Amino acid sequence: MFQLESFISQFKDISVSIAVYDLQTQKELLIHADEIMHPASTMKVPVMMEVFRQAHEGLLSFDEHLKIFNSFKSLVDESGFSLEVADDSETTLYKRIGETESIRELMRLMIVLSSNLATNLLIEKVGAARVNAFIKELGIRDMTVIRGLEDKKAFQLNLNNSASARSSTTMMRLITEGKVVSKEACDKMIQIMLGQEFNESIPALLPGSVKVAHKTGWTGSFFHDTGIVFPHPQDRKPYAISLFTHGFPEDNENEAHACMAQISKIIYEELI
Predict the structure, then answer these.
(1) How does DSSP assign 11-28, residue by residue?
(2) Of 25, 31, 94, 228, which is least packed with CB atoms within 10 Å of its CB?
(3) Which of 102, 134, 163 is the last residue of a domain?
(4) In terms of DSSP bridges, do strands 239-246 and 27-31 run parallel, antiparallel, or are they unpaired?
């Protein structure tokens, strides 16, 4: 893909990782795909997967209500910390402290609006260790979830979640193939991700007939998007794609989104 490599080459001080798996042809596209990065909110997908696993095992119900609270324990020393509403892309839960919400709705808010508070509440319920164990059971390499979000003490000690473009695409491929928990569970996870409300990257420059089930993530100078692209016509199998970047200025997220959107467009036009 000369056009793609030429486009990426203009970003001199930016790390750009790309991993694509085409279920139609079983071909892969990998560019710096194994670079380990902070996954930002893309780690919310494995949290969703573990929620579905525990529901399948009868350990929880999607209709079960959890109390909404904003006090969590640091991975470092179990000292307390709270999430800042200003750092969250979903704010309504903060006005409802002390009330309850269903696991089903918390999971939706976690994915489609990238709610940090919903994520931490769900991790409190299912356990970060279990999320991480399930990743390993699925054979996904170079992806780790060890904690929830905004644990600043852990961040300062570099105790962070991690992932690569390749590992994220492997995860999305397994969901596409119906191999995470069950085919029914995977179909439901895809439906949730199809509701994504942040669409500035992978879907932005694709034809309107194309559907994209995906999860974005950005924190500091990390900007990512990982998902499943369902091309038109419908009889063409989808492809899994992950775009991970590091180095775009925090105050210029538009440039990061525009870069990923153009990469996605080039890949789509090459494949379809």
Answers:
(1) -TT-EEEEEEEETTTTEE
(2) 25
(3) 163
(4) unpaired
